[in-house]
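Good morning,

Attaching, inline, the backbone tokens for the sequence recovery test we're adding to the shared suite. The designed sequence is right after.
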């Protein structure tokens, strides 16, 4: 009886862990959250659009775990490579301009693994 209970608990723990790993944030969600920020990031707009800031706030909500934040960071860096005219100063100011606090500096030199 006890052995069966322990086995059941182990299965539940493994299933729980796999479920959390499977829900890692993906680049599509990150891109969709930040697509409205391109005009601000490229200098075509002086202030981020309301939709951009909504996307930033949404991103902070969906990137809840450390793994999610690292994945989002990697996605942002990868996506930024597509836009060669992104202004680093605008990227650095974006969270503050949207009233969002993030724990990682926005920079092409950011190490997403930390």
């Amino acid at each position: 009886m006890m052995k069966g209970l322990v086995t059941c608990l182990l299965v539940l723990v493994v299933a729980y862990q796999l479920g959390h790993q499977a829900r890692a944030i993906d680049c599509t969600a990150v891109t969709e959250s930040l697509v409205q920020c391109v005009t601000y990031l490229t200098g075509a707009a002086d202030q981020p659009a309301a939709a951009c800031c909504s996307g930033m706030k949404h991103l902070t909500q969906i990137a809840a775990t450390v793994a999610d934040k690292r994945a989002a960071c990697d996605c942002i860096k990868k996506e930024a490579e597509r836009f060669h005219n992104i202004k680093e100063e605008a990227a650095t100011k974006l969270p503050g301009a949207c009233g969002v606090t993030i724990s990682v500096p926005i920079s092409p030199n950011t190490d997403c693994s930390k």
